[in-house]
# Entry
Amino acid sequence: AQTVTQSQPEMSVQEAETVTLSCTYDTSESDYYLFWYKQPPSRQMILVIRQEAYKQQNATENRFSVNFQKAAKSFSLKISDSQLGDAAMYFCAYRSAALYSGNTPLVFGKGTRLSVIA
Amino acid sequence: DTGVSQDPRHKITKRGQNVTFRCDPISEHNRLYWYRQTLGQGPEFLTYFQNEAQLEKSRLLSDRFSAERPKGSFSTLEIQRTEQGDSAMYLCASSSDRRLGYGYTFGSGTRLTVV
# Structure
């Protein structure tokens, strides 16, 4: 079974600075998707960025970018120019790309709580 | 597209009572998922539906839990004889097979407190 590990329970960053959140995963599959979700306090989970395993190029969405190292099974999230609104729980998630392989739900890590200091 | 709706947002119940939650997915999404999230933890998969068929159930889903998705539209999650350990946020999400790599759209969740 696939597992996702986020080794940083909490992180903090000064406003306008850059922070990197770590994520590693374990899988025997070669084709899959990776995601970072943001969950603000008492609000719903929203997708921040996604990465397809077959693409070598790292995904970027405005101030958010990833460092995808497939061989190392590492998928870190970099937030540049941090803003107060970035404060939230961040979850790394894995999903098999095999549509009919059976169990293909998203597997989540335990999350990293990010605080942004003004 | 009004997103994924969950009802109620909050539920307080006495131990031993039955509760039922509802989820309305995005209309064109054929897959619907239920997750449970306890404080400070990541969501844990409970079960999912492809259209009206329930295809997978986690071992977290004890016999007291049952989920349905009649006609492949909305879904309900029922917990019978609630226990204090059932207190959690119950998240519903939906996705489309045509956009497999785009993750899920989540609802705001139902927070259950068993007293």
